[in-house]
Amino acid sequence: MSLQYLNLHKLLNESIPHLVAGLSGHILGAIWSCYRVSSMQSLRTIYQNQIVPEACGNHDLLGDWWDNRIQHAVCSIRFVLFNR
């Protein structure tokens, strides 16, 4: 009985720090990805409201680049949250 308890104790002592570190990594990765999407949205607003009308003569030179970039960021959020 004491050998089983020792094995369980060893398993919990070795596993819990690794589980906490892994979960912390997932949480930080998700937070960083969400921040990047938010930052990209604000940069897109500046681009569309100030740069396109003033510097580019109302011609959007990037086209749908912003949409593709945001889709890639959302895919990375999904990957970080659900595929590990």
What does this entry show, briefly?
With 84 residues, the chain is mostly helical.
Question: Strands, helices and their partners?
Answer:
Blueprint: H1 2-55, H2 65-82
Structure characterization notes:
There is one protein chain. The chain is mainly alpha-helical and 84 residues long. It has one domain (2-82). It has 2 helices and no strands. It is rod-shaped.
Fill in the keyword field for this structure:
rod-shaped, 84 residues, 2 helices, mainly alpha
Tally of structural domains: 1
- The whole-number mean of residue pLDDT values reads 82
- Helicity, in percent? over 70%
Number of extended strands:
0
Shape: rod-shaped
The gyration radius over C-alpha positions equals 23 Å
Termini separation:
35 Å
Query: How does the major sheet shape up?
Result: none
What is the string of helix and strand elements? Answer: HH
Low-confidence stretches: none
What class, by secondary structure content?
A: mainly alpha
What count of helical segments does DSSP give? 2
Report the sheet-strand fraction. Answer: under 5%
